[in-house]
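hi support,

uploading two proteins for the ticket. first:
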Amino acid sequence: MFVIGSDLFVVSPLLPMIAADYGIQPGLAGLMVTLFSVSYMFSAPLLGVLADRIGCAPVLTYCLIAFGAANLITAESDSFAALLAARMVAGATAAGVSPSVYALVAGAAPSVQRATWMAVVVSGLLLSLSFGAPIGLLAGALHGWQIVFAALGILSLILAWTSTCVWREEQHAQRAAAQHSPLAVNLVIAPLAPTVIWSASLYAMYTYLGEGLDSFGYSASEIVSVILFYGWGAIVGILVGGRMTDRFGAKSTTVIALAGLALCFLLLRFAVEAKVLVNLAFGLSSATAQLFFSAQQVRLANKFPAHRTTILAWNNSALFLGISLGSMIGGLVTTIAGFDAELMISAAIAVIGWVVNRVDSSVPVSAERSPSPTAITQHRRLQRPSEIPRGERC
């Protein structure tokens, strides 16, 4: 997840170098990010269905190989068109990696620690924002941007080999169920709506964070400090959110996260305007926001146990859809009314997410709760040892 995240987040700081090498405007070079995201969003559900049918482990391995090849081609592209094509392939294959990892970990984790394990996985993605992107920028400045994508490609190929050693267990029962009962699209709209609204609320603010703080007279060093606190807050939030979910349940954690996020956006407005405790306010907001994601993943995995990879892939697509919507809303509001108004709009979107989340929570779903220890024990007695995921064996 650290490699996947680094590949996504490192492009932004490298854009000036890439644009200069190809003799194009940085705005045009930004198509790399757009095509990566769009390709990811549309490919994730398809690869999720494939993983539920043939197994997560093979899809993970094949997609890592293709992802590594796409990054090596990115490093060697002699035209901007070839570069964009390589980034589209990278986005499409990354869409097969993340949901497969989520599903494999969710299946291997003990049921009472599933959210904590998932949170550790997501923390790899967030660490790439704090460490992967800066390290990539430094390496690109010293040796050229091509070496960054070449290194990511090589790392991906190494991970493809190690994944065949780590994930030998096949999820036989899950695949069999998926083959006989395909997941209908209309069943996932309501459960995925909170993800779309949550990410739209969060990224409407984050996309224009630097520009917004600059408009209030914050210096470059102050903005960097805010982003650093924001990144560390996200890591703390995702880990705490995992433990909260295991202790209090996914439903309660998502409700707390969305309500808290709305309040934090209001707090941010006053902190930014007064220039008081700004770093702590952004760190708290980021931590509160990230309580949501692992809880939502566990909730979806428990609702659709026979289609775990498919639903987690859909959740990733919903995340990218929300990011796109949030960026558009944020750009429009910031241009018309300023960053302070954008914070208010983000708070309003979070409140809408809280309401939608509550409505979806009121719909009874038999598989929403994790199975009880007694049920797990009885089920395990009927399974051969080879069929029990490694992480749950005694």
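and the second one:
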Amino acid sequence: MLNGLGATSLHLIDRQAVTFRAVDSTGLITCFEIGATPSRIQFREVPSIGELQPLGDSRGDAVDRGRFENQERWSVLAAGGLTRARTLPAGHRSVRLGELFRVRRGIATGANSYFVMTRSRAKDLGLLRWCTPVITGATEIFHAGGEIRVTDDRRLLLALPPNFDRYSSIAVLRYLIAGESAKGGLPAVSQRFLCQSREPWWSVERPERAPLLVTYMARRPPAFVLNPDSMALLNIGHHLYPRSKYFDLQRLVVMLNQQAPDMAGFGRTYQGGLEKFEPRELAAIEIHVPEELLRGQA
């Protein structure tokens, strides 16, 4: 668009609008003149397809070409990026989230219906000893109010270590055999794609428990929570590992949730307003942090 094709204007249809009946995607019309290098490119958002006409008028924002050249994700320029305040509060510093935290995906089991269960089911199967509390849905984080805890109704994850002797427990052996057997015309759990890629198939990944967690896909801003009980997290969120042991994590969670609405546009937005943040995209988001909070960073 900038090197040869010659973009002259972009017309983005509102993310909440249904642009294509059978495809969950946002709609964008790009106008260009081959070989052109305009110093400014028109960028506007319209609420519906019917508002696209005419494409050649001057409505929208005339954005300096350099803004497009320096911005990796152009959607940020539309999602408040043109008017978003650039001045920092007094005593604050602008940093990327990845400078404060290492971001890692949640656990992908390959078969949640097999590896995730209620406490009562784990007890009935004799598996309680090898299970650990797990967060299974983004709503659990959204409703946690900044801190998520283990409760009696919390679901459990079967977390057998890779060196577990399957013959050391009759209950575990019986359950693993069931997972290796086809049922109802469906292939065995052990034959599912992700399970097949593991050795042994029944040992799900065991990442270090993170003190902070964040949702990564929703039709609302991300939500950050403290994880004081060190619960496991399924791939409905990301782990956040502080890069300094001196951070005031409780204060950071409050600050991140306050700034979460400003993170719109830095992820991948789908038709209907669903936005997804990959770890790399989340780590690249700039936030403003009080200077005294960063002084102890080591």
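thanks. also noticed: DSSP finds eleven helices and 17 strands in the chain.
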